[in-house]
Design a protein that fits this description.
The protein has 10 helices and 42 strands. By secondary structure, it is of the alpha+beta class. The strands form 12 sheets. Strands 25-26-27-28-42-38-37-32-35 form a 9-stranded antiparallel β-sheet. It has a 7-stranded parallel β-sheet with strand order 3-2-1-4-5-6-11, sandwiched between helices. Strands 15-16-17-18-19 form a 5-stranded antiparallel β-sheet, with no helix packed on it. Strand 16 and strand 17 (356-361) form a beta hairpin. Helix 3 packs parallel to helix 4 (88-108).
C-alpha cells in the first residue's frame, strides 16, 4: 500500500491539502508542530473518517524522517513544512536545510516525486499580472528561502532526469473548510487582513490596522490576490496528478491564485457586509517595505496544464472563515480540555473542572477515567494497551453494533435472518469479536461552552464487519460539566451504503464504585423498576417480562451478595428509533455509607442492563469490583420481531439516545 507523505500537514494549508488528499490517497503526515497543532490532523480524520498516520518530526532530523520512509511505502511527497516569520538564520535552517534533509532521505529511498509549496513572495515587486515567466526577485527572507528551494529542485532534476518536481507559487490563501472544523490558527498576531478581521469580529482584537491609504488605487489601499484555501488544496492535488501522469522527469512552476485583485478596504467592506456589522479600523502609515500597489496572479498556465481554476469567491471564503472563527474562537485551543500528547491509538482526552473530571480514549470510544474530588469512581486499566486483554469485561467501552447477546449470532431484519460473528461460546456478545470496543474512533472535536465541554468522536463501521449489514456512521458526543458526564449517540447509514437497513443498539459499559473497596457489597442502590427480562442459563432473553422481588430493586436496598445481571425495563411500549427528544428518566441511584458522594444515572432509553460484576478476573481486579448500568434497547430486540422496531434502522433515519452519569458531592 503506497502513501503520499505530507510535510507540514498539521498547518493551515497543509491540513486542507491532507483533507482533499484523503479522499483519493493514503496519507502520512510529518510536522514539527512548531507553529501548528496536531488537533488539525485529528479534525481531518474526523471529517475524512480515515486514519492518518502522524509523526512529530523536524525535517532536519534525517534519522527520524528516514524511519517514516522505512515504515511506510512513500510514493510521492507534498512539501509544505516551513516557517514564514522568524529570524533569517532560523528561516534558512528550517526552510532550506530542512528541505535538503528531506530530499536526501527521499533519494535514499528512491522517492523522486515532489510538489513543493512555494509562494508568490518569490516575485518580490513584480508587475501585475504576474506569470510564471515573471522575474524571480524576492525581497523578504521567506521569499528568498522559497526561491532557493525552487533552484535546488530545478538543479536536482537537471542532474537526475528521473525527478518529477513541481513548485506551486501560492498567493494569499484565505477562508476555511466549510465544516468549520479546520482553519487558520495563527500562533501570535496574524499576518493577513482576513484573520485579523475575524478576531475583531469575535472581540479578541480591538480593530484592524490598514497600513497606508496613499496607493494609486480607487480607495488608496493596495491590491492583492486572495484565493480560497480549499481551491489552493485542490491545486496541490492537480499538480500531483500531473506529475503522476507524466511519463518523464520534469520541473515546473505554477501560480495558484484567483487571478483577481481586491483592495484591503474592499475586503474590509465585504467582510462587514457578510458579518452584518461595520468593524472598527484605523489607517496607519505604511510598514517598511510596503510599496507594491498590486500583486495579482496570472493563472493561465495552471488552467491550461493542470485543469485548475479557483472556483470559490472571496465572499464564500469570508463566510467559511467566520464559521471557523465563531466555532473556534481560540483556534484549536479549548478551555478545560487536554490530551496526553500521544499521536496514535493511545490518545486519551481529559476534560477537567474543579472537583470533577472525565477521560475518554480514541480506542473503543472508551471512558477510561472519572474522578470525583480526585478520587477515581471507575474501574479501569492504567495502561491503555490492557483494554485489549481477552479478560477485559468491557471496562468503559462503547458497545455496538448491537449490545448484549445474540443466540448463536442470529438476528433478523424484516423477517430476513442474519448471523453475526460469535465471541462468547456459540453466541455473539456486545457486537462480536471486532465490536465498537476494539475500533479506533476519529476525533475528538472539542467544544467549550458556558457550562460544559464536549468531545465528539466518529466511527464508520463498514458493511459486513462482524456480520452486520450496511455502512454505519456513528457520532458519539461526551459532554462533561462540573458534576456529570453525558453521552449522546447518533448513528445513520451512509448515503453510499449498499445496504438500506441494519440493526443498532449502542451503549456504554462503564463499571462504577463509590469507594476504593475491593467489592461493591456495601453499596446502597435504588433502581427505577423491578420489571426485568427473563433469561435462560446462557443469559439469553426468553422474551418474557417478570418482576424481580429478591430484593425488590425498586425500593432502596443494600447490595450485599445479591447477584444481578439482567435487563430492566422502564418503558414497556417504546416507539421510535431516536429517543433523544424524550425526557431523561432517572433509572438508578447509588450511595455508600463511607462517602458523601451520590451517583445517579439518567437515560432516554427504554431499558438498561444492571450487572454486579460477578466473575470478573482481570488485571488489577477480582470479582464484583464495580457495577455497570448500561441503558439501551431491549435485550433481544434484534431477534424478537415484536421488539425489532427499537433497533431497525433504515437509510435516511437517525438512531439516537442519551445517557447521563451524574454525581452529587
Amino acid at each position: 500500500m503506497s502513501y503520499i507523505l505530507v510535510t507540514g500537514g498539521a498547518g493551515y494549508v497543509g491540513s486542507h491539502v491532507v483533507l482533499e488528499l484523503s479522499a483519493k490517497y493514503n496519507v502520512v503526515v510529518v510536522d514539527s508542530l512548531v507553529n501548528s497543532s496536531y488537533d488539525a490532523v485529528s479534525h481531518v480524520e474526523f471529517l475524512a473518517k480515515k486514519k492518518i498516520p502522524f509523526f512529530k518530526v523536524d525535517l532536519n532530523d534525517a534519522d527520524a524522517l528516514s524511519e517514516v520512509f522505512d515504515q511506510y511505502q512513500i510514493s510521492s511527497v507534498i512539501h509544505l513544512a516551513g516557517l514564514k516569520e522568524d529570524s533569517p538564520l532560523d528561516l534558512y535552517e528550517n526552510n532550506v536545510s530542512g528541505t535538503i534533509s528531506l530530499l536526501k532521505v527521499m533519494t535514499s529511498h528512491n522517492v523522486k516525486t515532489i510538489v513543493f509549496s512555494s509562494s508568490a513572495a518569490v516575485y518580490g515587486d513584480a508587475t501585475t499580472p504576474i506569470s510564471e515567466e515573471s522575474l524571480v526577485a524576492p525581497t523578504t527572507a521567506d521569499g528568498k528561502t522559497k526561491a532557493v528551494v525552487e533552484d535546488i529542485l530545478h538543479d536536482l532534476y537537471l542532474n537526475d532526469p528521473q525527478w518529477k518536481a513541481a513548485a506551486l507559487r501560492v498567493f494569499n490563501p484565505v477562508g476555511a473548510d466549510p465544516s468549520g472544523l479546520i482553519g487558520e490558527d495563527p500562533l501570535g498576531v496574524p499576518n493577513h487582513v482576513l484573520p485579523i478581521l475575524a478576531q475583531v469580529y469575535i472581540g479578541t482584537r480591538d480593530k484592524l490596522s490598514i497600513f497606508g491609504n496613499d496607493y494609486s488605487t480607487h480607495d488608496g489601499t493596495p491590491i492583492r490576490d486572495y484565493v480560497h484555501v480549499t481551491d489552493v488544496a485542490k491545486g496541490y492535488l492537480a499538480a500531483l496528478a500531473y506529475l503522476h501522469k507524466a511519463d518523464h522527469g520534469l520541473y515546473r512552476e505554477w501560480n495558484l491564485g484567483s487571478g483577481k485583485g481586491t483592495t484591503v478596504l474592499d475586503i474590509y467592506h465585504l467582510f462587514s457586509k457578510v458579518a452584518g456589522k461595520d468593524l472598527p479600523y484605523e489607517v496607519v502609515p505604511r510598514r517598511s517595505g510596503d510599496h507594491v500597489t498590486s500583486l495579482i496572479a496570472n493563472t493561465e498556465r495552471a488552467t491550461k496544464e493542470l485543469g485548475w481554476t479557483a472556483q470559490l469567491s472571496i465572499e464564500q471564503a469570508i463566510k467559511d472563515l467566520l464559521n471557523w472563527t465563531t466555532k473556534n474562537p481560540s483556534g484549536y485551543h479549548v478551555d478545560n480540555y487536554f490530551s496526553n500528547g500521544d499521536y496514535e491509538a493511545n490518545r486519551i482526552h481529559t476534560v477537567k473542572y474543579p472537583g470533577f473530571q472525565a477521560s475518554v480514549a480514541n480506542y473503543g470510544g472508551t471512558v477510561v477515567d472519572i474522578q470525583v474530588n480526585g478520587i477515581p469512581v471507575l474501574c479501569n486499566y492504567k495502561d491503555l494497551q490492557d483494554y485489549k486483554l481477552p479478560t477485559n469485561p468491557f471496562f468503559g467501552a462503547t458497545v455496538g453494533r448491537v449490545s448484549e447477546r445474540l443466540p448463536e449470532g442470529h438476528f433478523q431484519i424484516n423477517g430476513k435472518q442474519f448471523v453475526a460473528d460469535v465471541n462468547e461460546g456459540p453466541n455473539t456478545l456486545h457486537g462480536g469479536p471486532k465490536g465498537f470496543n476494539r475500533q479506533y474512533f476519529f476525533g475528538p472535536i472539542a467544544t467549550h461552552g458556558a457550562e460544559n465541554t464536549s468531545l465528539k468522536f466518529a466511527y464508520l463501521d463498514k458493511d459486513g464487519n462482524n456480520g452486520f449489514p450496511g455502512d454505519l456512521l456513528t457520532i458519539i458526543t461526551y459532554t462533561i460539566s462540573s458534576n456529570a458526564l453525558e453521552i449522546e449517540y447518533e448513528a445513520s447509514l451512509t448515503p453510499d451504503s449498499k445496504e438500506d437497513v441494519t440493526v443498532v443498539s449502542l451503549t456504554n459499559h462503564s463499571y462504577f464504585h463509590l469507594t476504593p473497596d475491593k467489592n461493591i457489597n456495601d453499596t446502597r442502590l435504588l433502581l427505577a423498576t423491578n420489571r426485568y427480562m427473563d433469561c435462560d442459563a446462557a443469559k439469553l432473553t426468553t422474551g418474557t417480562l417478570n418482576n424481580w422481588t429478591d430484593p425488590d430493586v425498586s425500593k432502596p436496598f443494600t447490595l450485599g451478595d445479591h447477584v444481578l445481571d439482567y435487563c430492566f425495563v422502564v418503558d414497556e411500549h417504546p416507539t421510535g428509533i431516536d429517543t433523544r427528544s424524550l425526557p431523561l428518566k432517572k433509572i438508578l441511584q447509588a450511595t455508600h455509607p463511607r462517602t458523601s458522594t451520590k451517583f445517579n444515572v439518567f437515560t432516554t432509553e427504554p431499558s438498561f442492563e444492571f450487572f454486579t460484576g460477578d466473575g470478573i478476573e482481570t488485571k488489577g481486579y477480582g470479582s464484583r469490583p464495580g457495577f455497570s448500568v448500561s441503558p439501551f434497547r431491549y435485550t433481544g430486540a434484534a431477534y424478537f420481531e415484536k421488539w425489532s422496531n427499537q433497533v431497525t434502522l433504515r437509510k435516511g433515519e437517525v438512531y439516537g439516545s442519551r445517557i447521563v452519569y451524574a454525581f452529587d458531592f
